[in-house]
Amino acid sequence: MLTKVIEQTKIDHFSKWLARAEKFVIVSHVSPDGDAIGSSLGLYHFLISQEKNVNVIVPNAFPDFLRWMPGSKEVLLYDRYKEFADKLIAEADVICCLDFNTLKRIGAMEAAVSASSARKLMVDHHLQPEDCCGITMSYPQISSTSELIFRLICRLGFFSDITKEGAECIYAGMMTDTGGFTYNSNNREIYFIIAELLSKGIDKDDIYRKVYNTYSESRLRLLGHVLSHMKVYADYNAALITLTKKEQEQFAYVKGDSEGFVNIPLSIKKVCFTCFLREDTEMPMIKISLRSVGSFPCNRLAAEFFNGGGHLNASGGEFYGTMEEAEKVFEQALEKYKPLLLGNS
Ligand code: 5GP
Ligand code: MN
User: Ligand 2 centroid vs 144 CA: distance in angstroms?
Assistant: First the structure.
């Protein structure tokens, strides 16, 4: 049995929307990750089983290693089909906002979603949800939004309507947001849910291979290059990797190629905090990804130094300036957080 994470009043409230609404739009955040696409398609398959009209819209493209997911071909990219997407958003009865806590995270879609008169539901696990939805299901203690979608469907009384396809998407989201169940994954209920998903006929080993073992040769070579000039700050239990625009060109970088790189230096003994700085190809900006193990608060550091935020162990932000300047700021941050970094090892 699962703990009732979502409050009954919220389940009852959404149940009423579900009974009455016809047109559903599901939206998720910029640069959608496995949990964004997994939770969106998990909910998509469920709503289709209830004979609803459903569209999934995300701001921009998602990585190739998520394209095997059943339904992924139906996902509409806002940056390519803005006009059509705007119409769907405006005419929706219900908009489900998944895996983000503020409308800022959906980028260019924000205006259309805010302006729509649709009822709005947020299902998310990031801290400090914005008050922008009629129903907010926000539970930072849960490691993925996909897990919350499973819990939501079950609490609505529709476990039996979860299909194998829906179960595959939910599993993929749970798996990717926990690094293959290697972090944020000590809640035993996760494994109860996996058992339930297996009962739907999913092949979890195959899903793992489809997500993690489908590197292109250029991605693996890029990883080799990035690691070859990694900086390890042994006195701070930290490591830094960087990727410039020039290097991206050199290695025929495609979006998503560096996904997961930030976690790799954590496999060095004693390193409990890593940073990945990547020059954006579209904007004059450096994207920051931070990861930690233990109690080191990446999100605090991200907010203080990189105008960002996120989870305790996985956060991010942005930096406007050169790579050298970003590295300097990172080193200042290390100095400031040194006591916490050393206390954490
Ligand atoms: P990633 O490193 O995978 O891009 O991001 C990890 C987590 O950090 C995300 O799930 C999100 O919670 C948070 N995050 C990433 N970028 C930003 C950002 O620019 N601002 C804020 N507030 N959070 C971010
Ligand atoms: Mn997530």
Answer: 5
> Would the CB of 184 count as within 6 Å of ligand 1?
no
Our answer on whether the CB atom of 142 is closer than 6 Å to any ligand 1 atom is: no
Note the pTM of the prediction, 2 decimals: 0.84
**pLDDT tens, 169-178?**
999 999 999 9
Of 249, 200, 251, 198, nearest in space to 225 by CA: 251
State yes or no: pLDDT of 258 exceeds 60: yes
pLDDT of residue 284: 87
Residue 44 dihedral angles phi and psi, to the nearest 5°: -55, -50
Residues 6+ positions from 276 with CB-CB distance below 8 Å: 240, 241, 242, 243, 258, 261, 262, 288, 289, 290
Residue with tokens 């292109």: 216
Collapsing DSSP to helix, strand or coil, 28 comes out as strand
Residue 215 has pLDDT above 90, yes or no: no
**CB-ligand 1 contact for 309 (6 Å cutoff):** yes
pLDDT in tens, 97-112: 999 999 999 999 999 9
Atom index in ligand 1 nearest the CA of residue 291 equals 2
Instruction: Decide whether any atom of ligand 1 lies within 6 Å of the 63 Cβ.
Output: no
Rounded CA separation 300/310 (Å):
9
DSSP 30: S
Average pLDDT, integer, range 10-28? 98
Question: For residues 139 and 125, what is the distance between their CA atoms, to the nearest angstrom?
Answer: 5
Taking alpha carbons only, the member of 104, 152, 143, 151 closest to residue 125 is 143
CB 40 within 8 Å of CB 68: no
